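Q: I'm teaching a short session on how sequence maps to structure, and I want students to see two examples side by side rather than one. Could you give me a first protein with its sequence written out and its structure tokens following it? Keep the formatting plain so it prints cleanly on a handout.
A: Of course. Example one:
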Amino acid sequence: MKVKFLGHSSILIEDKNFKALVDPFLKNNPAYIEDPNDILGITHIFITHAHGDHIGDSAEIAEANNSLIIANAEICDILYARHKKLKYHPMHIGGAFRFDFGRVKMTNAVHGSGFRDENGIIHSGGNPGGYVIEVYGKKVYHAGDTGLTIDMKLLEKEKIDIAFLPIGGNYTMDIDDALEAARFIVSKVTIPMHYNTFGLIKADPLEFKNRLLGHIVEILEPSESIEI
């Protein structure tokens, strides 16, 4: 399995006939380094919540690739109202489903999920979440935007291979809380995300790495990959 960090909270997961994006905020993402291959042949798109820097370019990419969009039921309903020809798989917190590539479980996240429509009216995007995505036996946890929760302790039994955790603070966990989350989860590798894209989420990933003693932390710059 190859996992590529695309900046902010966007990641690309590839293995065999599986090529998935999580939170594909690319077009307006100042951290993203454009690569046309990142959006070619996408089989699945995972959306953690409805904020624009996470739902991103989901519909456009899905339309170009006939991708399956996996999100909470409310986001699927919202997108279906605008893009009826796309494919959707709705989920909710705590729910799990076995796809042909492996099992996906939607996990709790403590955040918001509202969005503003073209008329400036704010709507609910349902509950925010994260995902444990198992692909041919390997597991990636994407926390989404979240604060620290004791629920993360339950993820230890999942035996996560790679965990992506936000560290930027203000809207999500800061470094202190992300350290506690990593100690709860005990993944083989922990990768920080959701930092330094904007002024309010400044954080030093090296501080996170140096303080997480006894754990393997990989700091990926946008466009860098890790293989497991």
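Q: Perfect. Now a second example for contrast.
A: Example two:
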Amino acid sequence: MTDLPRADIQGFILRTYAMPLLRILALKVEQSAAARRFLGKLAMAREGGNGSGELPQLATAVDWDIKPQYCLNIGLTYAGLAALGLPAASLASFPAEFVEGAAARAERVGDTGNSSPEYWEEAFSSPDLHILLFLFAQTEEALEQAASRLRAGYAETGAISELSAHDGRSLAGNTAHFGYRDGFAQPTIEGGLPPAMPDVLPQTPAGAFLLGYPSQYTDFLYPVPAPGELGRNGSFVAFRILAQDCHGFEQFLTQAARETGLDRELIAAKLCGRWRNGIPLSLSPNFPDERIPLEQRNSFDYVPSESVPDAFDDRRGYRCPLGSHIRRMNPRSSAVAGNGGLKHRIIRRGLPYGPPYDPANPDDGIERGLLGLFIGASLKDQFEFLMSEWANKGSFAPGLRDTTDPVIGNHAGQMATGEDGAGGTFLIPVEGEKRPTALTGLARFVTCRGAAYCFLPSATAIRYISALDGSADRP
């Protein structure tokens, strides 16, 4: 396959920026024509990068000679496309899950109870959420300068109003708030850029992440929104604000260690599938072996495969439990329901928010979590499938007894097993034993505080939208 047209593709689809700062601006279109012109000004630099204009420019996937100080990306909700004045025929060409939006489909992905839209931050339960601007930066100065220029640009004409802003900051050692080193497993896209971390699995067809190309399914392309200049080279993202109960997670580890006699760090590794330093259990099942180089910590499979013929055969989950978080989200070549372990891969971006968790001050009342972006050509076949079928169903693989993902799962549907009359169960298979070790009383450690489904238009699509004259037929 020939190289993809990187200057037309939003940069964070094909590359990890590896920038420590992120600000997400949630916006409402107030005046459609002026808002279209504003967006068009963000995509004037056809060569990509930051550009040299007054406004920050859309970051595309072109090669860098020098890494920029910031990168800007743009997401548009279905309501946003309508507010911008897209013709009715174009609006009708988008897939149903995007049209309905994250709030309407929350129950499908387990966003119930305290994670349901009625408890979301106001901007994300509002029909007025139209645009998300994703601003990544290397320094606080670069972030503030670029954000100020953006705000001045959309406030000047009253074209757009700001609903909310959300800041993410990387933590020491590239860890998430639960203490695990993150950022290992990203797919390699055919015709795209090499991944920051080597991926031993087969390359994923470009059409799994970009509209207009052959997908991961034989002889199938995901429908491209019309006209072609609007849809081609675009993608979709599920944006989520995910609050993490660090104190509850650490308490669970302590209680489970007390009840089972297992080391609490081994329990943490079993829940995730990796030790907290990022070493996968598949490569080092007994201790977090720091001798394994960083670039090899994604070089494994759960069964011998064409890409990893010498992989340890762990089909029963004695090393890495079948229901562990990373095995559910990326089962690699292991057998799963539907036999599609490599068909639902997803691109993950984002950064933590909130200060690091301090065990000495566990009840500080400060919310912390993840600003997560989950990118794919199909919200339904990728993000929603992962959450509904693999994270929140025990039918993901045989022997899981209707359990859910121990880290991100919604355990409300499981039989009550905790001391407080609620909670989920996690099973750790033990070689030589008929019954697995069962950890009970799992709480909901991750709560959704807001979500949005966005279209990620190409640079060409943004210029197309900016050139609409507002006279087209609308619903």
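Q: What should students look for in example two?
A: Point them to this: Confidence is low (pLDDT under 50) at residues 415-421. Also worth mentioning: The first strand starts at residue 21 and ends at 29.
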